[in-house]
Design a protein that fits this description.
six-stranded mixed beta sheet; homodimer; four-stranded antiparallel beta sheet; 12 strands; about 270 residues; about 25% strand; Molybdenum Cofactor Biosythetic Enzyme, Chain A
Chain lengths: ~270, ~270
């Protein structure tokens, strides 16, 4: 399975000014495509702090490292400098990225969003990539995404503005993801059980998990409530649709029987 | 300044099933109380993975490490085992924590949420703390929070259910936080500038930041939009209210003049 790590960059996240929704959005997509996110981190706008996280992910043998944020024109956008530092590679102007940035500002001038299309130092900065990297077309903003293969790891840098991140993910990143994640299958089912107490369900969840190795079985703790509803999720990633479905069905069946044996019932399965 | 690191625990976060709002909630509160969150991480339900992050935070010299999640009764709640492993300390039953858990289930039986008050193995598990730790009263759920001083670092473990985390934070954790964070002051101002292009603002933001060391000045990138509004935040933490206010006022004044000199205007300051 493809192991993925995420590095979200930005002081505004650590100050609590901005809720980082990019990490969750990417986790959901990567899981859905059959990858496994092993770890995510939020770090400050600091070249060495970001580079340390990238080096750590490489050392742990991650197949893919996503960075989010820090690709823009301001002085505190320093993710690409950090990727370069982590790999001991220089930052170099990319002709393709420069052409993209130039086109983008010309388009923004046409639309009346920006006064002039000239490539100032700040704008030019977005087209300086670590040696060996390729830009990814950004259908929303001015900063291209960046993809770079190093050893067995692919580093993918996306902007922090969610609309831009999603735009690149849905377009120019698709062929890259297809190659990295292949044709994996992920299936998840949720069973809502009529039970208010996670400690009562714990032995049942543990038994089903033990008897179905590979299937991830988890009860989702909630505050105690008179309605007594506890969700249990079962999920599995694999390469064969039929095998994944069969394994999930087997675990679902065993969960149902174990609940009945424990005097409990399920309200719904979705 | 008190340096804080956060470790959020839970496969459901990495699968993308649950958006981790605890990290942002804590970042906001800690910043507001004058602390500085240096780094946050999400890790899997795995004792060694969690322990590695705690050891890392200790090695980096964090003053406070918060963990969120993994305190409940199920087999995949393993945060306290990981804290113990990171510190090479045993897990021991805490009489105070056992009394709390027992009381809590008795109360839940009285309310009709739970069938029996008996301390099963799963329930008892929540009262096994790393040696030297103290339980923190949980006004919402059954798992006590945990506080532990080790060397110069305080490790605070809170449940992952947001209502429980917030409940402990607002009650039993308050005296601990007061001691750790002291009487620091944090002030933040936001200036909305009539400008649609972050690259145009970049030199102004850089100059104000350079001329006001300590004050954190940041433009908040947004997708291009006909309304042309770009927020710039200025913030500072310090021990003296008057000094912090004066420094922020000076930076605000200089930002206003730099905007005017650049032919730009602010729409609002809050």
């Amino acid at each position: 399975m493809t192991i993925v790590e995420l590095v979200a960059v930005g002081n505004e996240l650590l100050l609590g000014d901005v809720l980082d929704t990019n990490t969750n959005w990417l986790c959901k997509r990567i899981t859905g495509l059959g990858g496994r996110v092993g770890r995510t981190v939020l770090v400050e706008d600091d070249v060495e702090a970001i580079a340390t996280e990238i080096r750590g992910a490489l050392a742990r043998g991650a197949d893919v490292v996503f960075t989010t944020g820090g690709l823009g024109p301001t002085a505190d956008d320093m993710t690409l400098a950090a990727v370069a530092q982590a790999l001991d590679a220089p930052l170099e102007p990319s002709e393709e990225a420069l052409a993209f940035v130039l086109d983008k500002y010309a388009e923004l001038v046409d639309k009346g969003y920006v006064e002039c299309a000239e490539l100032s130092q700040e704008r030019r900065k977005m087209a300086f990539l670590p040696r060996g990297a390729q830009p990814l077309y950004n259908p929303v903003g001015t900063a291209p995404g960046v993809v770079l293969n190093v050893g067995g790891t692919t580093i993918i840098s996306l902007p922090g503005v969610p609309e831009e991140l999603k735009g690149i993910f849905a377009t120019s990143l698709q062929p890259v993801l297809k190659e990295l994640l292949g044709e994996s299958i992920f299936i998840e089912k949720m069973v809502i059980v009529h039970c208010g107490d996670e400690s009562t369900l714990a032995p049942i969840v543990s038994k089903v998990a033990k008897d179905n190795p590979g299937v991830y079985v988890k009860s989702m703790a909630k505050p105690f409530h008179p309605e007594k509803r506890m969700p249990i999720t079962l999920s599995l990633t694999g390469s064969d649709q039929g095998e994944v479905e069969a394994a999930i069905d087997k675990a679902l069946g065993e969960l149902g029987r174990a609940l009945t044996d424990g005097g409990l019932s399920s309200i719904s399965i979705t």
